[in-house]
């Protein structure tokens, strides 16, 4: 049973790392959007291609109700924090109970 415990804890750790990295990618993308980035820069293109599929549906659903302020990165970060607090903690709890 300890193998399943280690497997669940490893999955929880990997999910936590992926969510943390994506959270930082969202933050960097939001900061870069404050300036006028070169759209042909490979880093800007990478950030846009990675974050836009998640941010675009939120922008459509919420719209620009606060005027020119885009709050979709804040919403995505809050969802990531929720997933880290709920999903990762739940997986670790399941892993600990199996031991």
Explain the overall architecture.
With about 100 residues, the chain is mostly helical. The protein has one domain (about 1-99). It is about 80% helix and about 0% strand. It has helices spanning about 1-35, 40-60, 70-99. Helix 2 (about 40-60) packs across helix 3. The chain is elongated. It starts with a helix and ends with a helix.
Number of helices: 3
Alpha-carbon Rg, integer = 17 Å
Distance between the termini: 7 Å
Largest sheet report = none
Rounded average pLDDT = 90
Q: How are helices and strands ordered from N to C?
A: HHH
Residue windows where pLDDT falls under 50 for at least 5 positions: none
Instruction: Categorize the overall geometry.
Output: elongated
Instruction: Please tell me the total number of domains.
Output: 1
Helix content: over 70%
Structural class: mainly alpha
Total number of beta strands: 0
């Amino acid at each position: 049973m300890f193998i399943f415990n280690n497997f669940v804890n490893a999955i929880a750790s990997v999910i936590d790392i992926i969510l943390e990295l994506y959270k930082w990618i969202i933050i960097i993308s939001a900061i870069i959007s404050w300036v006028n980035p070169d759209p042909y820069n490979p880093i800007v293109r990478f950030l846009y291609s990675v974050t836009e599929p998640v941010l675009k549906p939120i922008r459509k659903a919420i719209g620009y109700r606060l005027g020119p302020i885009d709050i979709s990165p804040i919403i995505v970060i809050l969802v990531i924090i929720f997933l880290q607090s709920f999903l990762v903690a739940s997986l670790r709890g399941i892993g600990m109970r199996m031991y």
